[in-house]
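Human: You know discrete backbone vocabularies at least as well as I do. Show me how you would write down a chain together with its backbone fold. No explanation is needed for now; the record alone will do.

Assistant:
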Amino acid sequence: MFFRKIFKKTQGEKKTLINVHSKWTITYSGEPLLLEAKPNLSEIFSKDVPDIPEKVTDKNRKYYEQMSPDSRRTILAAAYLNHPDPAIRLEAVEFAKKHYALVTQQHLVDLLADSSKEVREVAAKAIWEKNAVEFAIRALGDEHDAPSHMSRSEALSAVQILKDAYPKRSEDFKKWYEKNWHR
């Protein structure tokens, strides 16, 4: 069913949806994301045609009907990286790596300032695995090129977390940092 109900019945349980704000606009309407409070991400991402993270309206229906399932998964991955539960954000990093695009890159960079140390570390490793370290440094250090939403001190901490994620690549990191850090 294309319409997303506020409460879905699955094996007698109600799935509660919550509004989650994103620093990056990833929905058609720009409204807060509409996510499951206690999602089963494996189930969500395995659907042939995944749900979308906002209320479907007459205005956005055509947009989402034309969107490929993979594009929907990418939006969902970015959406769940904003979930209030750190365990969900941690799990969402794995799906973000599978459904990777610019939108997930931006959200992974933001996770370098997450309240959970484990989420910060896993996000840093994902950035390395996706060969997005240069992008991350530019986002953290240059307000004109895909800027992060972090303060200078948060960005400096994020750079250190990124550097520490792969000490064996410290020379590469140093080269990218010198080329791309502009704060």
Q: What stands out?
A: The beta strands are 7-10, 13-20, 33-36. The longest helix spans residues 152-165.
